[in-house]
Amino acid sequence: MFAAAAIVSVLLALLLTFSAVGKLTKSDMQVESMTNVNFPVDKMWMLAIAELAGAVGLIVGLFWWPIGLAAALGVAAYFLGAVVMHVRANDKAVAPAGVLAIVALAAAVLIALAA
Hints:
Blueprint: H1 2-24, H2 28-36, H3 44-60, H4 65-88, H5 95-114
Helix pairs in contact: 1-3, 1-5, 3-4, 4-5
């Protein structure tokens, strides 16, 4: 079970890092997404920091599972919040946030089972 938890955790950490870099560099796709959900573009860096913290927590969690579990649950909450923002703004691009929330919940389950 640890192998599955490790694979999902590492892949999710990579996706979080990629997303954070997009926010920090203010990529056109990220700016458009933030604009669509009425999130202030000048505050995107805060979301990037949260994503990077989640990525670090998932990696550290490979060595101490409580940190990984907390990180996975935090990432799931982060993306559930993103889903809410997309739904409230009637934005059709809700699927990526929803999928990442599910992946984060799967990581939490796998980490808990591997503990």
